[in-house]
Amino acid sequence: MAARSTVDDLGVTNVRFANGVTLTIKPTQLRAGQVLISVRVGQGRFGLPRDRVSPVWALPGSFVAGGLKRYSIDNLQKLMADKAWEVALRTNDDDFSLSGEARSGDLDSELQILAAYVTEPAFRPEAFAQARTAYATSLKSSASSPSSVLGRELYGRLHDSDPRWRAPTPDDVAAATVEQEQAVFAPALAAGPLDVTIVGDIDVEKAIQSVAATFGALPPRRAAAPLVADERFPAGTPAPVRLDHNGAENQAVAVIAWPTTGFFPDMRQQRVIRVLAEIFSQRLLDELRTREGITYTPGASSYASLITPNYGFVYALAQIPPDKIDTFYAQVGGVVADLAAKPVSQEELDRARGPRIEDIQRQQQTNEYWLSLLAGSQQDPRLLDVVRTTIPNLKSITPEDVQKAAQLWLKDATAYRLIVMPAAKATPTP
């Protein structure tokens, strides 16, 4: 162990091993016997090629199912049948995250499994082929409703169709190979920065010993290469971009999104934007349901990058009949104009802010909340300030803050509009 320190106000212990592996530990009694582990490697989507869609879509289904070099997944499950363990993989914007959950007494076994997946992954072709088939099937089924098409496409579209975030096409999936998957992920596993976070019903010293015997015993890890934070919001679209779905002819989705900014330049401003989105959502619901009689539920939310300082967005959407698309955009324009013209009432602010505060307080009583914010906090200590400032920031928001945010961010010239409409039916030949 090369270094050790504590974050006393949050009950966190930080460790750096001689090989460069970092460990963050938070013991809790939030759920008896539960221990959650996160192992972060690589640079996630930011580290992918910028000129093509990489097959990271296959990793959740193929990597764990591919097993280890010495053990297939079936043999591994038999070998560990008397232990409670699991491994899952997720591609995040700035890392690949292997995660696991174990009983307190099975921490050693869980860490051994996770370390084995880092050092001896098999990348079996048959597991990749199964994942590719499953993904191709899900792509086909996702065309059957406007909400499914939107769920597949929106995040990539709001990243200016950057291939690192764009959803793969059927041709992308058909052309992908296990060798491409391995070329993307194996280098990060082999030598890149490695960060372990453990949260739950565990003793700090025991956790340090267990990680020292697994990840801490690996060969030295190289330092992280500079991360190029270059997310881009698309140019505004006066007329909506159209996508098609193959579902019911009376269903459509309309979206409007405005660029904002990243999370860390001004965390309080992001809390204001989130409350603005909550108020926007409620007003849109009132307009479309009460005045227009449209039964589909609209909504609004916001996103702010933890990596790119100038990337974020706030958006509103509604499932709506195709002939009501213009009505949606007209009502959005009216809500925006009113929010920018005058402050909201204190009652409306409290109605939007109160449930948000209660939700955060509930989340803070779970190990999952702490794992999500502590993972990576040694590399970026600002994540600790997210915990410290969320509720105080929310309580400090005023009606004037919401009005200023609407004036600053909800500008028509920057708005990106997107609709998902029923595909035109071919006319039968007489």
Summarize, please:
By secondary structure, this protein is of the alpha+beta class. 41% of the residues lie in helices and 18% in strands.
Structure write-up:
This protein has two domains: 3-217, 2-Layer Sandwich (Cytochrome Bc1 Complex, Chain A, domain 1), CATH 3.30.830.10; 241-422, Metalloenzyme, LuxS/M16 peptidase-like (Cytochrome Bc1 Complex, Chain A, domain 1), CATH 3.30.830.10. The protein is 41% helix and 18% strand. A hairpin with a 4-residue loop joins strand 5 (88-91) and strand 6. The chain is α+β, with helices and mostly antiparallel strands and 430 residues long. Helix 9 crosses helix 13 (382-396). The longest helix has 25 residues, at 267-291. The chain has 14 helices and twelve strands.
Features:
single chain, 430 residues, alpha+beta, Cytochrome Bc1 Complex, Chain A, domain 1, 7-stranded mixed β-sheet, 5-stranded mixed β-sheet, 14 helices, 12 strands, 18% strand
